Amino acid sequence: MSMFTYEALDHTGRKKKGEIEADSERAARQQLKGQQLIVRKLNSIEKQHKGTQDSTRLNATETVLFLQQLSTLIEAGMPLIEALSSMAEGMSRAQSRRAVFTIRKKVLEGGSLADALRDQHFDEVICNMIAAGEETGQMEAVASRLAQLLEHRQALNQELLSATLYPAIILSFGIIVMLFLMAVVVPKMVAVFERAGGDLPTITKIVIALSDFLRLHGGWLIVIVAGLILTYKLMMRNPWAQLRRDVFLMSVPGISKLLINIDTARFSRTLGMLLSGGVPALSAMLIANQSWTLLPLKQLGEQARDALREGESLAVALKKGNHLPAMATQLLAVGEQSGKLDSMLIRIADHYEKEVSRNLKRLLTIAEPLLVMFMAVGVGSLAMAILLPIAEMNQLVK
After folding, report:
1. Domains 2-48 and 56-150 fall in the same CATH topology
2. Who contacts 352 (Cβ-Cβ below 8 Å, separation ≥6)?
3. Using one digit for the tens of pLDDT, what is the confidence trace for 148-190?
4. Which fold has domain 56-150?
């Protein structure tokens, strides 16, 4: 079946627009006629959006909803084609409906669901687990696990965003306030001080010098900062520069432990979900290694995959380099010995996600008073630089 957009008139002459699914344009016109609509325009969505597959991909929230509904409907005994049709109709965005209808059409033409999802640029983890679910006949269980995986990813990303966004907003606001005072308020006060004469306090002289520097060279400072940001982004395209940055981050006390725990949780949950979904170990390691964000850990994961191919223990291979937490490698060894590696990986992910959450809350608790103190010292210093000369002028007048 294909999707069509239509523009029609109802029995009252009112214009209506919408989308309809049909085998052909003729069938679409007949359906609309059966709804007592007079068709004015009818166009195939595939022709309108040919070559624009990226515009019809699902976002993160819709992907979780898609997998949850897929698991529920298949578990209820609904055929895959009907389930996809029902899910498409429930999507709130028109682009999302088109994406699901496109997936349905490819499955209807004889393709696998995994290939259809891959054509719509779904994550490789999702595509491989769906492929394993199709082979083993456990589609509903696989889809449910995938939805849980993506929910955990979203929750972790949301915590990271919250932990960085709040301090960044406070810091940016404080800097903007201080720059405004130095660029606008201080120059006006300088004119008053110059007319009054007298010696200015040291702190006022420093603030005036900084204000003059910003007014004279502020444009160049903006250019330099923008240039540094652009240079950093260009450098980060080089694997060597990325490796040096990640090695540095992994050597910073406090930050290194947090970043390693985040990567450990992501890798463990992804690998655990893939193994529990029936994906072969080497293929699962290849996909799970994409979840590392720190290059030294990614290299360690690739070396562990090579060692696993040669029959070595995964726990022993990941223990090399002493990058991962000792408890994680110990639990991995226990999981391999007991034959329950997939469930042990999920437990490791749960533990380190909770550990990351606790560390982020602790960092926020420390950062909030420090940022408030920074703003108080900065704005207070500017206020003193302005008020001290005014107080001295009042004394002279008296």
Report:
1. no
2. 261, 262, 264, 265, 268, 325, 328
3. 778 887 887 787 777 778 778 878 887 887 778 777 777 777 6
4. Receptor-associated Protein (1.20.81)
**CA separation for the pair 267, 364 (Å, rounded):** 25
Entry pTM? 0.67
CB atoms closer than 10 angstroms to residue 266: 24
Q: Is the pLDDT of residue 49 over 50?
A: no
Rounded Cα distance, 300 and 288, in Å: 12
Give the H or E element holding residue 4. Answer: strand 2-9
What are the extents of the domains in the chain?
2-48, 56-150, 151-398
d(CA 395, CA 1) in angstroms, rounded, equals 88
Query: 16 in helix, strand or coil?
Result: strand
Non-local (6+) Cβ contacts of 251 within 8 A are none
The total number of residues shown for the chain amounts to 398
Q: So what CATH class is 2-48?
A: alpha beta
Q: pLDDT grade, residue 289 (50/70/90)?
A: confident
Task: State residue 53's pLDDT score.
Answer: 44
* Residues 2/23, Cβ–Cβ less than 8 Å: yes
CATH code assigned to 151-398: 1.20.81.30
Supply the Cα-derived Rg of the chain in whole angstroms.
30
